[in-house]
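Internal tracking record. Fields below are filled automatically when a chain is submitted to the structure queue. Please do not edit lines marked as system-generated. If the sequence contains nonstandard residues, flag them in the REMARKS field before resubmitting.
Queue: standard
Priority: normal
Entity type: single polypeptide chain
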Amino acid sequence: MKVVEHNKLVRDKIPKMIEESGKQAVVIKEQGEKLLTFLNSKLQEELDEYKRSGDIEELADLVEVIYAILHHQGIPLAEFDKMREEKNLKRGAFKEGYVLEKVIE
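SYSTEM-GENERATED OUTPUT FOLLOWS
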């Protein structure tokens, strides 16, 4: 019997999909700070995957992890979007593509 260790956060339906493929999935359900640690690791994993591949689908995974972090922190999406919009009004977004090379004093 071959055992592959992962010890990482996966999407909710992955364990069932593994079981349906005839394999056994051993899972634990984390909460609290430990879950936040796994979410932060997943955030970095998804960012790294996007940077390597440039695949837009990886951005969807990245956003899903962000939504999970917000849920875990008890922050509604509407409140988060309001924060984002307020920051855009004060400081702008990243749509123009400005790269600050230097500031001369």
